[in-house]
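Table S2 (continued). Query chain:
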Amino acid sequence: MPVLRSPRSAVAWPLSSRPTGAYPVTALSHSLVEGTPAPMQLPYAHGQAGVPLAVPDAPADADVLARTGFATRADLGQHFLRSPEVARRLLECAALPTGAQVLEVGAGLGTLSCAVVQAGCRIWAVEKDVRLGTLLLDKLRPFGPRARVTIADVRSVDLDGGLERGSVLLAILPFDWELSSALTEHIFASTHNVVRGLVVIPSRTLDQYRAAEGEGRGLRLEEVDGISRREFWPQAPAPLRVVSIERR
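Corresponding output:
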């Protein structure tokens, strides 16, 4: 489980002033994942209204995936959250109001996505790896209109067109520090509908922006928690931080 820590000093994250332009939002359909292996049947039960229930004794989805020999993509900084309990702890840190719209980038196997909807919020789950498309769609389908899935690079998605004002970014970003920096900067620069965020990022990402604190005042970053590298498959290669993000 993550170890709670005292918050550290805030960090200013410089924002790019370059406009990103408009892009079509991709609506996921089975045709988008045509030619990929059949989706695995990952364990979850259904309760009233088809809402998935927690299955404490079931193996974590990431552990099931690991046993299939799935090849993770280093270019995406790909690591999968193993524990729904950790997902719930992240939700506590995010302090989301009921009904909030949440943007998740790098939704992976949907572990955090499910926790968001089960907490009474709405999720827009964006995932670049097309191999995970059918699996993620099947995982979130029981939630109906409260869950939306897009298989695309978030940098090619019209976030302004798909998010309402006051939306929150909640994501486990790639464990490649340069990529996680680029994605965060893009999201907050391309839409003002995302007003704040809570992300898991490599400690180096935070360190780099702490070192560049005087170069821009676009975002305010604050470390609010720690999280073990062992909570992910494959295990994270470097220390991680749970960081809140607010606009200045």
